[in-house]
């Protein structure tokens, strides 16, 4: 698999660390858990969108765009990182935020909202939950065009067949690290949301002939809805990359037991997972994605889903700035959902 024909910008120096978590593995009661520190990727405060933006922004620059347009939830990591890439490239950035939980947009809140303003976002439009986000972004693009400017629309989460190339590249990076560090990994666990991360890793592993099953832990949908989204993006990627093998439907495995009551709304297991990794290894997760994904991994370990001698790699996709607007829950001052 050759990624070199695809235009790419570079936002991270070198590879992200792949670390063993001895104290956390022990606290969970086995198997051997490793972590891929994509929370340490480049751009403002890192996270998985940085890898996708390397390919998306390269495409935007090729198309002579002067403004990046994207969308997300009110505390979107993807919006923070798209804006950060725009700043680095000398582009402007306009955001459309979806208020998925009614009343959740607070213009004075901390976390990513604060960073949007520090990085100099050009405009923020807030729309109600369930709005047609693509249509809203097209509206922004048309307004720019009327002023003689050129917008480039990046879909939510950067999850199309360009952005997901970032996680095909990550699959190659993991393969190199396994070889260089003499590591045998049996399985990978990752948060599955807009699905570019999951689909990119899946297509990447298949394209690299790496037989490492992936467990997706959903942050907003049950498997019946999520699996086809992941699969269809992985198939599109495989086509684009000229991967000869099929992406079998059974290779998409996700769990939907950890995201409730709702996307971005805290639950008890998330809080336990965030506290456990912080308290055993000094690594911060986030309440919306990696906390729920790690809660899933912990629960699967406890249920005996993995055998004791397996080595499982958890991909840390970032998001820790969002701990701050959730401080009441994280401090135990507000009860999360069951
Ligand atoms: C966006 C995001 C995810 C989900 O990744 P997708 O590619 O959208 O599935 C996971 N973790 C964090 C911190 C994110 O910001």
Percent of residues in β-strands: 15-25%
Number of alpha- plus pi-helical segments: 11
**Quick one: CATH class of the largest domain?**
Alpha Beta
In the CATH hierarchy, the architecture of the largest domain is: 3-Layer(aba) Sandwich
Describe the structure.
With 338 residues, the chain is of the alpha/beta class. It has two domains: 18-47 and 161-330, Rossmann fold (3-Layer(aba) Sandwich); 49-158, Rossmann fold. Helices cover 40% and strands 16% of the residues. The chain has eleven helices and ten strands. Helix 3 runs parallel beside helix 4, helix 6 (165-181) crosses helix 7 (196-207) and helix 7 (196-207) crosses helix 8 (223-241). The mean pLDDT is 97.
Topology:
Blueprint: E1 18-20, H1 22-28, E2 32-37, H2 49-62, E3 67-73, H3 77-89, E4 92-99, H4 112-118, E5 123-128, H5 133-146, E6 151-154, H6 165-181, E7 187-192, H7 196-207, E8 214-218, H8 223-241, E9 253-255, H9 268-281, H10 290-302, E10 311-316, H11 327-330
Parallel strand pairs: 2-10, 3-4, 3-6, 4-5, 7-8, 7-10, 8-9
Antiparallel strand pairs: 1-2
Helix pairs in contact: 1-9, 2-3, 2-6, 3-4, 6-7, 7-8, 9-10
Task: Characterize this entry briefly.
The protein is an alpha/beta fold. It is 40% helix and 16% strand.
Key attributes of the depicted protein:
338 residues, alpha/beta, four-stranded parallel beta sheet, binds pyridoxal-5'-phosphate, globular, six-stranded mixed beta sheet, 11 helices, 10 strands, 16% strand, Rossmann fold
